[in-house]
Amino acid sequence: MDIFERIKNDRGPLGRYSEVAEGYFIFPKLEGELSNRMLFQGKETIMWSVNNYLGLANHPEVRKADAEAAKRWGLAYPMGSRMMSGNTEHHDELEKELAEFESKEAAVLVNFGYQGIMSAIDCLLSRRDVVVYDSGCHACIVDGVRMHSGKRFVFQHNDIVSCEKQLQAATKVAEETGGGILVISEGVFGMRGDQGKLREIVAHKDKYSFRLMVDDAHGFGTLGKTGAGAGEEQGIQDDIDVYFATFAKSMGSVGAFLAGDKDMIQYLKYNMRSQIFAKSLMMPLVESAKVRLNMLKTMPELKDKLWSNVTKLQSGLKEAGFDIGNTNSCVTPVYMKGSVEEAMRLVYDLRENHRIFCSIVVYPVVPKGVILLRLIPTSVHTDQDIAETIEAFKAILVKLENNTYKAEAVA
User: Fold this and answer.
1) Which range is least confidently modeled, 10-19, 62-71, 119-128, 165-174?
2) How far apart are CA 218 and CA 249, in angstroms?
3) Cα–Cα–Cα angle for 76, 81, 82, nearest 5°?
């Protein structure tokens, strides 16, 4: 069969909804300043779908730094990959500051989070090595693991008994191949909001020989006394061998980094294909990242305000009888029961009549019959935003339980 004919007939589990969902439920168009309230379909909505945890994406100091850096350097400098012609003192300085902040010997910048961790996994593993990872890991990790030509084992989400079982199997394979073992988990799982059981995984290092990689995209800047992330929060930062975080969440920017011991980071710098053969991270992003990192370190009130809002939102939802799962992070999932069609009508009602915008997650990302509404609280949300949202959720839940959304049609 012709490739194009095949994809025309099978657009994928989400693509099949494109004619009725695109532009509204999928690929929605948001307008206005990045803040707690934005415009959707020309109307103001309370925004719970932007990962701007600390409010830095549109902070006046950040906007000024972004503008000045763009004026000074333009958007092209430096040209070429860092290995060939795109390295600068500014890139080196940012890496040193990130490594120090994460209590690691060294760090290396990567252009994008998704691309960066995929490439790091591919770079670190040889065909003799074995990878063991949590079933709840983000798609970027799954795709990185899929690139691995050796053995891979997946353990049930945050299930340490399952993890040890897979470590046992991985150890046998590694003994046969002469390879090593890389365990991958997340600091915070972005859909469920629960932290990875890093402390419990690390406790198995005495029994099994492995290295630990942690994707801390949602923990960086939000968890730990200083904001250094889930490792600091759980007291095991020194036991994380490969620390990864992105600028796209707490820093409100573009870019990412990996941190660890200097030999490992040096190896990544010289062997990570996505960086060797890609243009260097543009200077305005590097300079503004330094400003953002300094604000993260010197303005703890931003994280304090964030967690004040997180506590109010999550406590209010639980008191109202909503199931928010096992989240112990800022990520706030709300679980309901219903079909994909009901979910679409529910979200339409939420956006049009209650002016609340949050992400909707349905099958195949979650099991059939589950509707997951994910809220991302930030430091710029207000008590009024939280109160209005909880009242709106109460109203849609009544309709869902009364089967109202089964009969309604989306306009």
Assistant:
1) 10-19
2) 7
3) 100
Q: Which residues are CB-contacts of 190 (< 8 A; sequence separation ≥ 6)?
A: 138, 217, 218, 331
- Which pLDDT tens digit goes with each residue over 324-375? 999 999 999 999 999 988 998 999 999 999 999 999 888 777 888 999 999 9
**256-260 and 242-246 strand pairing:** antiparallel
Structural domains present in the chain:
3-53+300-407 (3.90.1150.10), 59-298 (3.40.640.10)
Number of residues that make up the chain:
411
**Beta carbons of 296 and 232 less than 8 angstroms apart:** no
Pairing assessment for the beta strands 256-260 and 106-110 based on DSSP bridges: antiparallel
Strand order in the sheet with 43-47: 30-31, 37-40, 43-47, 356-357
AA letter at 302: L
3 state SS of 399: helix
Structural contact between residues 109 and 253, judged by C-beta atoms closer than 8 angstroms: no
